[in-house]
Amino acid sequence: MIRLEKINKTYFGAQPLHVLKGIDLHVEEGEMVSIMGASGSGKSTLLNILGILDNYDSGDYYLNGRLVKDLSENQAADMRNRTIGFIFQSFNLIPFKTAMENVALPLYYQNVSRKKRNQLAMEYLERFGLKEWADHYPNELSGGQKQRVSMARALVTQPKVILADEPTGALDSKTSAEVMQILRDVHQTGITMVIVTHERGIAIRTDKIIHLKDGVIEDIEINNPDAIDLNSEIK
Amino acid sequence: MLDFDGIHEIWQTIARNKTRSLLTAFGVFWGIFLLVVLISTGNGFENGLMKQVEGVTPNTGFFFASQTSEPYKGYQKGRSWTMQMADLEAIREAFPCIKAISPEASVWSSEDKNVIYGSRGGSFTVKGVLPEYNEIEKSKIIKGRFINATDIATNRKVCLLGRKVYTTMFEKGENPIGKMVKVNGIYFQVVGVARSYTDNVNINGSIDESVILPFTTMQQVFALGDKIGFFAFVADDDTPISSIGDDMKQLIKQRHDISPTDNEAIQSFDLSEIFKAFKGLFFGIHILIWIVGLGTLMSGIIGVSNIMLVTVKERTREIGVRRAIGAKPKNIISQVLSESLLLTTLAGLVGLCIGVGIMAVVAMVTSNMPSDNMMFQDPNMSFKAAVAATIIVIISGLVAGVLPAWRAIQIKAIDAIREE
Q1: Contacts of A110 in chain B (CB under 8 A)
Q2: Nearest Cβ partner of B324 from A80, A90, A95?
Q3: Contact B414/A53, CB-based, under 8 Å?
Q4: Which end of chain A, N or C, is less packed with Cβ atoms under 10 Å?
Q5: Residue B249: which of B138, B71, B412, B91 has the closest Cα?
Q6: What range does the domain containing B296 cover?
Q7: Cα B7 from Cα A212, distance rounded (Å)
Q8: Domain count, chain B
């Protein structure tokens, strides 16, 4: 599903910063992996490249069998819209739209009719137990609810891949556990999932833990999430 | 692009910050409002002035016989001469484009009261004219009729009274038609009463204060002979006086043995030149109005653009998120442009409507103030100007959105969602 070959990325600032130094990575369809690393290890940059939010300097990135290189803004937007679902640490819901409108927004950019997309949005909200909150604005929701709305938004386009950037970073441990459980449930439906985190408690709930250090993959740890007690504290 | 969904999407962002949207829109509203008020006021003054000269045909010329300034065919210079009825006939024949031509002669009396009816009397101008004169200095016949061709042909002793002459000489409501009025010692029968359209433009005194006689009758009874010192004429609208004036003068000069190069012998006056000057003045005023109005509008537009820039800056994260979940650059551009367009168009149309509405009220109030000398009349705006203003608002709405839209697509999703 995701194949990275010798990806290099340098930020050219006052001092050139070689962030990714030849990353080779393979994520199979239906896998759930986590990327761990200290801040500055390049994990956010890697996620940006995976999400087609940023370019890379050299190497090849294949997403769903397609080479992602030198895409136009429109192609990139379309690919993000149809292939990838994003979950952000700070939720990034649009404050003046209701939960339902937020969930329906990606479909708006697919030119899905209003009726159809609201119906789909409602289905996904219902799936995450937010049916009663559909008409509420983000500032009327709790952190866990917000993250569930943003998960619904990520899934509403039925993407191949979910990219989550510190999905529990802004949540308390109990809510974090709930969110992780939902992510695992989603993963059970066959969606490939990449989670960037610096919390071990999150990472051990994924199949593979990719340890990133100073722009190279230090170690890939094969993990069995079913072995751990899912009710255990995360932090 | 602008289906219901699009409008809903745009409206949501505009409505989310009502105060700012209102204040922004106010600039455009004020610009258009002012433009409408200025244009209408300008038109009001123009209409008012045109009302003052109502009844005056712009394409009117006047010729006076004056002393010659060159010796010719044995005559010395400085000769006094006059025109004759035959000259007018010759002009009428040679220039079919002349619609009306009439001499005008006035007599005054040394007596205190030259017009007498019964025990009443007054001092008024006495004018002799041809029937066509009513097409040159137009007057409104209140009672009876104007001088007609039979009056001229048979030298009838009839007269037409000006409105003020009538009110001075007769009781209120008294029918003057057929009554005999003594004018400069001779009795004339009244055939009509006329009022002038305006006090401000007249030839030898207002018709209101004149007694009008048939020209031929006047020549006969006051022993003036076949002498015409002055005549006025109207050409059809397609023939400017300036294009035929010189040829007319040559014809008259030829008939009276005046040197063709003598520029003094016939004095003339072209009313269309005055009208042209007025038109030029109002053209200038209209241009000034558009400059001021558009300037105000432009500052409103710049305000919109400025606020939109701030808005885009504030919405960096939102736009970034939209980009991340699949918005294409054209989606973002159309979003920003549409917001600016909707805001300016709405504000502009409200300004247009309120402006037109207020001027309609002003028009109603001023038209209820009965005054002939009202210099302000029927302030309004032509449909064309309204359409032009609307188009300008729409275009400027788009222009105002260009810079903010360009800024918005510079926002990369990655910049927006990066944690601070």
Answers
A1: 326
A2: A80
A3: yes
A4: C
A5: B91
A6: 4-54+276-417
A7: 46
A8: 2
Residue of B nearest to A103 (CA): B325
Distance CA B189, CA B180 (A): 4
**B322 in A contact zone (CB under 8 Å):** yes
Residue pair B296/B34 in contact by the 8 Å Cβ criterion: yes
CA B291, distance to chain mean position in Å, is: 21
Sheet strands (E) in A28-82 = 32-36, 58-63, 66-67
Number of C-beta neighbours around residue B377 at 10 A: 20
Size (chain A), residues: 235
What's the confidence (pLDDT) of residue B390?
Answer: 85
Sign, Cα dihedral of B217, B220, B221, B227: positive
Query: Are the C-beta atoms of A234 and A180 separated by less than 8 Å?
Result: yes
Q: For chain B, list residues with pLDDT below 70.
A: 1-5, 55, 109-111, 198-202, 370-374, 416-420
Interface check B333 vs A, CB under 8 A: no
Using an 8 Å CB-CB cutoff, list chain A residues near B322.
94, 105, 109
List the beta bridge partners of residue B233: B61, B101
CATH number of the domain located at residue range(s) A2-227 in this protein:
3.40.50.300
Cβ distance A109 to B328 less than 8 Å, yes or no, reads yes
What are the domain boundaries of chain A?
2-227
Which one of B21, B325, B410 makes the best mutation probe of the A interface by having the most chain A beta carbons within 10 Å? B325
Q: Distance between CA A180 and CA A191 in Å, rounded? A: 14
What local confidence, expressed as pLDDT, does residue B420 receive? 47
Sequence-distant (≥ 6) Cβ neighbours of residue B53 within 8 angstroms: B198, B200, B201, B275
Please tell me the distance in Å from B313's CA to the nearest CA on chain A. Answer: 15
Contacts of A95 in chain B (CB under 8 A): 318
In the predicted model, what is the mean pLDDT of chain A?
89
B366 and B300 in one domain? yes
